[in-house]
């Protein structure tokens, strides 16, 4: 029988201690007339937009951004004129559905006062890509590594029981070879789903 070394126990304990310093995640996903509105407590606007555009060519898109009481970034397909840009900027502060301002704008991500982001996207896969990025960052921060992103299909299963999910670090367990992430289908309830991140294969799967 293999006996774990003291060093492996130390690594596991060190990782477990990091849980206290990792931010919890709260995610709400709502469909609307223009696509999807998603709020994620653990992401910043710049990181979220990078997650959406990493497969895209910046040469084919126009990126607008602003700072102030709200930090925001928007992505528009193709070039835009000054008048269109001004209309988009005005819509971000005055509209609950900023994508209505420009049919070519496929995403707008803004910071929220309590922390995190509120994003408007036209495609469901883009909403799931933001969820995936939040779990990638969560695992990376907890394990002090550059974890891969979970598949979008795996992210979709998390919303089969409702539109709101949460991850509390206290419901995550770190082992020498994998990370067990408890996911709650309601912010008020204990975890009722789980995601497993396998450290050696750098892969995710459901429990």
Folded structure, characterized:
There is one protein chain. With 207 residues, the chain is α+β, with helices and mostly antiparallel strands. It is elongated, with a radius of gyration of 19 Å. Strand 5 and strand 6 (117-121) form a beta hairpin. The strands form two sheets. The chain has a seven-stranded antiparallel sheet, with helices on both faces. The protein has helices at 6-18, 45-53, 82-94, 124-143, 152-157, and strands at residues 25-32, 35-40, 61-66, 72-77, 105-111, 117-121, 164-167, 172-174, 178-183, 193-198, 203-206. Helix 2 crosses helix 4 (124-143). It contains five helices and eleven strands. The model has no long low-confidence stretch (mean pLDDT 86).
Question: What topology does this entry show?
Answer:
Elements: H1 6-18, E1 25-32, E2 35-40, H2 45-53, E3 61-66, E4 72-77, H3 82-94, E5 105-111, E6 117-121, H4 124-143, H5 152-157, E7 164-167, E8 172-174, E9 178-183, E10 193-198, E11 203-206
Antiparallel strand pairs: 1-2, 1-7, 2-6, 3-4, 4-5, 5-6, 8-9, 9-10, 10-11
Helix pairs in contact: 2-4
Comma- or semicolon-separated keywords:
207 residues; 5 helices; elongated; 7-stranded antiparallel sheet; 4-stranded antiparallel sheet; alpha+beta
What's a quick, concise take on this entry?
With 207 residues, the chain is of the alpha+beta class.
Strand order of the largest sheet: 3-4-5-6-2-1-7
The SS-based structural class is: alpha+beta
Terminal-residue CA separation: 26 Å
Number of strand segments: 11
Mean pLDDT reading: 86
* Gyration radius over CA: 19 Å
Q: What proportion of the residues is helical, as a percent range?
A: 25-40%
């Amino acid at each position: 029988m293999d006996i774990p070394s003291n060093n492996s126990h130390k690594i596991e304990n060190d990782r477990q201690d990091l849980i206290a310093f990792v931010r919890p995640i709260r995610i709400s996903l709502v469909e609307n007339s223009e696509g999807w509105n998603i709020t994620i407590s653990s992401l910043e606007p710049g990181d979220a937009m990078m997650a959406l555009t990493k497969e895209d060519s910046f040469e084919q898109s126009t990126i607008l951004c602003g700072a102030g009481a709200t930090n925001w970034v928007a992505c528009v397909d193709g070039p835009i004129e000054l008048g269109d840009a001004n209309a988009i900027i005005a819509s971000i502060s005055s509209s609950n559905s900023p994508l209505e301002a420009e049919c070519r704008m496929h995403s707008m991500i803004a910071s929220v006062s309590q922390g995190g982001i509120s994003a408007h996207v036209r495609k469901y896969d883009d909403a799931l890509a933001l969820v995936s990025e939040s779990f990638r960052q969560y695992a990376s921060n907890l394990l002090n590594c550059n974890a891969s992103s979970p598949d979008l299909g795996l992210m979709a299963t998390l919303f089969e029981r409702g539109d709101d999910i949460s991850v509390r670090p206290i419901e995550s367990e770190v082992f020498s070879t994998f990370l067990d992430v408890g996911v709650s289908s309601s912010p008020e309830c204990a975890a009722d789903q789980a995601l497993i991140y396998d450290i050696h294969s750098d892969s995710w799967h459901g429990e």
